[in-house]
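Amino Acid Chain and Its Fold in Token Form
===========================================
What this section holds: a protein sequence and its matching fold, both as plain text.
Structure line: whole-number tokens from a learned vocabulary of local backbone shapes, matched to residues.
Purpose: to set a sequence beside its fold so the mapping can be learned.
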Amino acid sequence: MSNVFPIGGVCRLADRGVIRASGADAASFLQSQLTNDVAGLADGTACLAGFCSAKGRLQASFVVWRPAADEFLLSCPREILAPTLKRLSMFVLRAKCKLSDASDGLAVFALAGPAAAAMLDGTTVWQVRARDGSTLIRVPDAAGVQRAWLVADAAAEADVPAAEAMSPETWRWLEVESGIVTIEAATVDRFVPQMVNFELVGGVDFQKGCYPGQEVVARSQYRGTTKRRTLLFDCDSVPAAGQDVYASGAASEPAGTVANAAPHPLHGGGSALVEVRLAAASDDLRLGAPDGPLLTRRELPYSVPLEAQAAS
């Protein structure tokens, strides 16, 4: 069944939080902590970035943009913002960088389909544009529709286009369709970036220098030791982030973990991004138990290497 639908509209993303990093050392501090080259972030662009533990496991994933030379905004789910902010703050030390929770002052709106297309007007993916006091960020397309964020002052009346309301669940499904994993509370400290394809979607820069877990991430990349990847599935049931996935008939241990999931907006059931062992990628995979609901694999919007190289 095709998963390209004429869906879209506008909704407020109340579940998204924003961390503000400001000060003369904001760029150098974030450069030393995140997986991407945020110090080199060009004017008018955004990027993905991860924050890892010393063992290379993702503690958070962000959309990052730079409103001013000495200011960055990092958006992640509100449910993990407080512990992420606390952990990041531990590393500031003497750096001239102030970290704060900017969530209450900023409203993040999601736009999809015609509502997004009407505002984007040739804007390319990850391009950032100022628009009547708000910030427009084009995020990758999903399910054949254009998508964007509009970030506005929460105290002001945002210039959001008049469009059909879109449910947050529909937006979450589009996020799953995009193939870009968001770290949630249920998946903190579960994945090295390559396990969730983060380097394939532009979330890791291997030339930028050190950050927590950098050696682990680099070793996975250059020694070919990645033996787990994230793939896209449909299911008659609605999966949940953090839920185990099993190869049919193999009850001894899970074959993978649901990274993100959402109910399907039109035909019931749900879709999920599932991190799986490459050795089990071609097996019948079941949700929650070896005899659980069947997961039906679909193609991601980008290529994923499904054979692990032998470590050199």
Observations:
- The domain at 227-306 is CATH 2.40.30.110 (Elongation Factor Tu (Ef-tu); domain 3).
- The mean pLDDT is 93.
- The chain has two domains: 9-178, 227-306.
